Amino acid sequence: MSVINAFGNKISEIKDMWDIPEVGTYLTKTLTRQLKHLGAKSPSEFSEILKADSKAETTDEYEQRAHDRIKQWGLTTAVALQERAETMFREIRPYVTGPKILDYGCGNGGIGARLKNIGHDVSLADVYKCSTLPQDMPFELLSNDPLKNKYDTALLLTVLHHSDTPIETLKHAADSIKDDGRLVIIESVYGVSKGSELAKLSKNNQLCAASFIDHFANRMIIDPNFKINVPCNFQTPKDWQATFEDLELEMVKTVDLGIDLPAFPEHHHLYVLEKNFTSKT
């Protein structure tokens, strides 16, 4: 059985992904590296155990088993999360402009806090309030209410593929910036042709592998106490570019960031966008 994501792509069930030879081999290597980075004493053995667990009848059963394993093995995620926030902060910092910043889909607020520390006026927003969110920064729950023309820069850092309606989410974030503002986006992508082991897989198998990795990272590592939405709404870099053009967002910079840190081995692209008024004049 499979599901169809928001872009019409078929996503296999977790328990079926390992049976695709090319994907299974890739996931075994990748999951082993993830577990080693998180402090596993026997990463290869633990990877095989999690592979067996993923064959559970339901995804909920698999997730519960994986949570229990990670707790039993004493794997810690705090350092990995700090590393990831620091890496993304360095990646976006050159492109953040203006004093008023919106971290749209802020998660635990780690990147917003770093921007605040260098002098920006940062607001946080997400669909849920993380328990470790900084208490000294304004926060609002995201809804369909407009955030019109308030911010100089809006950040969407690995946010869009978690939205059930990624295009509407992108539009909502774009409406939040001033006419001369910008969007800074980091997205997990598939369909890459160079720069990582992922590129050696076929396009469809890249999507399959990315879906497993995203699920494992967000449901087992980032916040196991909250079921982060994982509809696997990935696009290729080319398709994201077309989406931005359709919404009259001008891409002023794109950077292929390659694979994220070992604990979160997704292939990232960075996009810097501005509202395009040329076609309206």
Task: Provide a compact summary of the structure.
The chain has 281 residues and is an alpha/beta fold.
Give a structural overview.
This protein is α/β, with parallel strands linked by helices and 281 residues long. The protein has a domain of 139 residues: 3-Layer(aba) Sandwich (Rossmann fold). The protein is built from nine helices and nine strands. The chain has a seven-stranded mixed beta sheet, sandwiched between helices. Helix 2 runs parallel beside helix 8 and helix 5 crosses helix 6. The longest helix is centred in the last third of the chain and has 20 residues. The model has no long low-confidence stretch (mean pLDDT 93).
Mind sketching the topology for me?
Blueprint: E1 2-4, E2 10-12, H1 14-17, H2 21-37, H3 43-53, H4 59-73, H5 78-92, E3 100-104, H6 110-117, E4 121-126, E5 139-141, E6 151-157, H7 166-175, E7 177-188, H8 203-222, H9 237-246, E8 249-259, E9 267-275
Parallel strand pairs: 3-4, 3-6, 4-5, 6-7
Antiparallel strand pairs: 1-2, 7-9, 8-9
Helix pairs in contact: 2-3, 2-8, 5-6
Side-by-side strand order of the widest sheet? 5-4-3-6-7-9-8
CATH topology of the domain at 98-190 and 235-280: Rossmann fold
Q: How far apart are the termini? A: 49 Å
Which strand-content bin applies to the residues?
Answer: 15-25%
Query: What's the pLDDT, averaged over the residues?
Result: 93
Kindly state the percentage of residues in helix.
25-40%
Overall outline: globular
Return Rg in Å.
Answer: 19 Å
The largest sheet is: 7 strands, mixed
Number of strands: 9
